[in-house]
Amino acid sequence: MGEKRSAADSGITDTDEHAGGGDGKRSCFESTDDYEVTCWLGKGAFGAVVRARHRATGKDVALKFLRRRRGMGGKAVGEDGLLREAIFLARFSHHPSIVQYHGLACHPSSGTWCLVLEHVGPSLSRVLQERRGGGGGEPPFTQEEVRRIMRQLLSGVQRLHERHIVHRDIKPGNILVGDGGGVVKLCDLGLAMDTAWKPPYQKAGSPGYKAPEMLLGKPDYDELVDVWSLGCVMGELLAGVPLFRGHSETDELFRIFRLLGAPCRQTWPSYPSLPLFGALPLCRSWDRNRLRELFPEERLSRDGFEVLNGFLTCNPDARLSAAEALRLPWFSATVDGAAAADAKIGQPASSPRQEPAAAASFAAFPCGDPGDCVAG
């Protein structure tokens, strides 16, 4: 791999992976005036994602903006992250399980940039919410649906890892569902990192999906934190609720160890070397793995449990990689051919209600003036 470089030195100076991609029919640098906003797709503290239509081609896209903050020297904080995410996405613009990146667009008056991405569909989180609302006491997703989802996600994650990129924020909210439920795609590489960066690495990700080694302060974690997050997603699809979401990182660790067993030198030899080793009082009753009790064989087959158990292994040295998981028997029988119709992801019959745009322009943003947003 060669000498590692610091995060501050990486990413945005790479010219061989220039911001581009898409369908190759339009310049990768455009004006937001080239687009007409049709609806909001999401908004929050980070900024906003809107659905828009390219005026010349009629193509639907998603435009991602970040809330603008000013740092030292008046520079918009987040612009480096925006360019870094654009570079990362451009590397995978043709992978079927990673959202396609079409380029960058700039607001002509404010100078605000946004990412231009393919419009896929609702998030897996939204679909999961709709399925949970159906009631009946049944798991929100069947085993076949979960297998189909996980195969596609593993394919995308494997490609990221082959190119030394760690997503660091895999969760249902960062997975998009499209093609009537037949396709899932990873999105939002805003927290992604290159393993060529020099450690120590910061904690990153969302509550309930962070790997135990990250929570325990391991400064040089690797791509296997993504595999842990995939295990959390898989378990949530089968159970209908997040497995480890607590009110603090300490509570998350307690929930992990309560279900999977408290680590020790035998199960995790490097555990005593972690910064937070000894800081957590571990209960003696957490002496064994109870994951199979939560997912009995009538809910998850033996082959399926081999995958889930391999993902949710506290010791990262014993955890499955994405490539190893795809070679396991659970994925050996295809569900993408004649049985695809029966295995489609459980999308709600009617699309979730979307908030209409206040105007077919960029005059109104959930984070205020477009000048207050920076894409990323």
Can you tell me about this structure?
With 376 residues, the protein is of the alpha+beta class. It has two domains: 7-121 and 353-374, 2-Layer Sandwich (Phosphorylase Kinase, domain 1), CATH 3.30.200; 124-343, Transferase(Phosphotransferase), domain 1, CATH 1.10.510. The protein is 26% helix and 16% strand. It has ten helices and 13 strands. The strands form four sheets. Strands 1, 2, 3, 4, 7, 8 and 13 form a seven-stranded mixed sheet that branches. A two-stranded antiparallel sheet has the order 5-6. A hairpin with a 4-residue loop joins strand 10 (175-178) and strand 11 (183-186). The longest helix has 20 residues, at 143-162. Mean pLDDT is 82; it is low at 5-27, 335-343 and 347-376.
Architecture blueprint of SSEs:
Layout: E1 29-31, E2 35-44, E3 47-54, E4 60-67, E5 69-70, E6 76-77, H1 79-91, E7 101-106, E8 113-118, H2 124-132, H3 143-162, E9 165-166, E10 175-178, E11 183-186, E12 193-194, H4 212-215, H5 224-239, H6 249-260, H7 291-294, H8 302-311, H9 322-326, H10 340-343, E13 373-374
Parallel strand pairs: 1-7
Antiparallel strand pairs: 2-3, 3-4, 4-8, 4-13, 5-6, 7-8, 9-12, 10-11
> So what's the overall shape?
globular
Number of H- or I-type helical stretches: 10
* Coarse structural class: alpha+beta
Ranges where pLDDT stays below 50 over 5 or more residues in a row are: 5-27, 335-343, 347-376
Number of domains: 2
- CATH architecture call of the largest domain: Orthogonal Bundle
Helical content (DSSP H or I, runs of 4+):
25-40%
Number of separate strands? 13
Distance between the termini: 28 Å
As for the CATH topology of the largest domain, it is Transferase(Phosphotransferase), domain 1
Largest sheet: 7 strands, mixed
CATH superfamily of the largest domain: Transferase(Phosphotransferase) domain 1
Instruction: Determine the mean pLDDT.
Output: 82
